[in-house]
Amino acid sequence: MEELENPSLVLTQVKENPSASTVNRSCENLEFYMVLIAAEKTAIGSICFLAGPITLLENAVILGLIAATSSLRQRPSYIFIGNLALADVFASCFFTTSFLDFHLFRRCDGPTAYLFKLGGVTMAFTNSVGSLLLTALDRYLCIHRPAGYKALLTRRRALLGLLALWSATVFISTLPLMGWTCPTGLASPCSHLFPYISRGYLACWTSFILVLLVLILGAYVLILWKAHRHEASLSNLQGAMGPGHARMRMDIRLARTFGLILLTLVGCWLPALSFMLADVAVELSRTQQRAFAFCSTLCLLNSAVNPLLYALRCRELRLALLHQVKVLSQAARCKKATAGDSDQRAPSMENCSTQELPGNSQFCSVLELTDKQ
């Protein structure tokens, strides 16, 4: 137990036994980070086994809907939501497999293999938070510059923004693979949460994510402030108390919607980020390491609720989903009918023709959340 509490002691013992194999040395070194007990493995494993497939399925459906509907994939708002779904698909795959492989199945990888897996998780979660920021900025531009929104945020600019986001996230996530690792291997001053990770890199990545979260919070605060000023001015112009009170309900709806979004975002990310910042400053105990393992699963839960908070609140995306469900059910009925009677194959196939969901001039924006104003 003493050697698990002190990774430096583990390294000293390994050096005194040079005949040990490379695999055994790697496993002995990584034992310090495999902190979960049997009950915790069962609880956290259940969360991952449940949340992982659900997250993958939800976001794959959203991504497929946007890709299959031409009226949606041409608009910047849905491009950002589609990229968010793609990042969360990666997060569900990379995080679930890596987390279970390390903490539950106790797989002992070398530095390169471990850093490659961790880089995939870092890339997915960083891109997910970056996509949330792009979505927040899109909604801010929509309410701040409604007249020039379409000219200001074109499809080309949205794609360039995604290209910049992916380039930044790939670069950040591969920094450990390119050499920014702990100079002492696994001993102090290495991170007590991630093997081979330098505390300097952990501090930079955590600070970067916190900056993104603050920008997201600021964007939604500005949206609420702009909406409040807009509704207040309309209320003064109307003069009558009845219609004025009816329109002022828009502020409350926006506050509730954005409050739910921000509460979910902060509640899922702040606990894990707090432990990372603490790991940079102090030596974490094994109890704190186990608590971080649980808090890190909250980031996966955030990817699971993102489709509900961002995608399915858009009316056109809900219509596209209903349209695709109708098309699939119609195709199933037609296939069953043609299989039952080959003589009716031709007329049945005529009824199986599908049409693209008709587009309109609306887009998923903050104004769509209050389209009944």
Description:
The protein has about 375 residues and is mainly α. Helices cover about 75% and strands about 0% of the residues. It has 14 helices and no strands. The chain has helices spanning about 1-5, 5-15, 20-30, 40-70, 70-75, 75-105, 110-145, 150, 155-175, 200-240, 240-280, 285-310, 315-340, 345-350. It is globular. Residues about 1-5, about 5-25, about 245-250, about 345-355, about 360-365 and about 370-373 have low confidence and may be disordered.
Fold topology:
Layout: H1 2-5, H2 7-16, H3 22-30, H4 38-68, H5 70-73, H6 76-104, H7 111-144, H8 149-152, H9 155-173, H10 199-238, H11 241-281, H12 286-311, H13 315-340, H14 345-351
Helix pairs in contact: 4-6, 4-12, 6-7, 6-9, 6-12, 7-9, 7-10, 10-11, 11-12, 13-14
Q: In a nutshell, what does this entry contain?
A:
This protein is an all-alpha fold and 373 residues long. It has helices at residues 2-5, 7-16, 22-30, 38-68, 70-73, 76-104, 111-144, 149-152, 155-173, 199-238, 241-281, 286-311, 315-340, 345-351. Helices cover 76% and strands 0% of the residues.
Fill in the keyword field for this structure.
single chain; 373 residues; mainly alpha; globular; disordered N terminus; disordered C terminus
